Amino acid sequence: MTASRVLVLNSGSSSVKYQLLDMADRSRLAVGLVERIGEETSRLVHEPLTGPAAAGGKREQTGPVADHEAALKAVAAELASDGTGLDSPELAAVGHRVVHGGTRFTQPTVIDDEVLAEIRKLIPLAPLHNPANVTGIEVARSLRADIPQVAVFDTAFHSTMPEYAARYAIDAATADAYSVRRYGFHGTSHAYVSRATAGLLGKPVEDVNVIVLHLGNGASASAVRGGVCVETSMGMTPLEGLVMGTRSGDLDPAVVFHLARVGGLSVDEIDSLLNKKSGLLGMCGDNDMREVLRRAAGGDETARLAFDTYVHRLKKYIGAYSAVLGRVDAVAFTAGVGENAHQVRQAAVEGLAELGLVLDLEANAARSPQPRLVSADYARVAVAVVPTDEELEIATQAYALVTE
Fold it and tell me: Pick the catalytic residue: 25, 82, 112, 154?
């Protein structure tokens, strides 16, 4: 029997998302989530998708889950009850999402003690994410030390940016001393969607230039030339770039000095303001695009301004990345907002006919879970809606590495 299953773990600060996939046919065997880890109201939702267990549907447990070790042991027990446990000889690898790989990790990497130590060293670059990623790795290694644990990094796909795109124009010695440069994030999504868009066009990925717009609560854009990222909107942290649910995106760096000197805000208060209390939430009080759209349609001017600001930033990046690529074959929308908010797609593309972007309004407004083109037949540049699949991308990269 050839081991072909990969367990994908995405360990957050208080949650663990997971999927078990069989790479023989790229099918999902189970999906689940443990949330509110460390609280009395912890919750585990597990859904088997194949075999006899699938007939029972979702299973849910509530009650305290003390820490990530307890969470992963609970996940292992749920999988075992389906007959797909961590002790299965069919399990080929565990794939871990790791947010920040710095300049050290530009490819998926089998985790050993040295690699884990290097990931720990990167915690200052991603203090909210890498610690939880490390914890998930440590626990999974303790549960199955005999199989490969693979780290797949959010930043890796963007490591191909030319140096002039990755550098900030500050003193070079200072930048090098403190690892200040643009790294980019959502890399697994941008990688998956750029390839899927090429497939949708019926062309080899090497022949396609695509602008990927990953629009969720966090949002980022990338310019991908022939399958290789040459520019992306997020920077040293996920704060740079597009307007997001709670993040400001681009702003004059001197705003930080002004808030400190004139407003008397501390560094931590400014950090919280820009990351957690800005974006759509800061502008209109809602970070859910569905609610912003509902309010704007009802005449709420603050919601309308938030929406218009969000779209204006999108247009700027579409235009900028069109210039970077020179030739654009497609603009691909993905993630929660990109896949589901047809109003955002319409507003972002409106007025860009000179860039070759024209929507088929009826196709754009139609809802579908499938990858699809929503551009007019005569448009020079395709507009695509491509549901992202970061878990499948992580599993694909992890499996390819361990079976080389």
Answer: 154
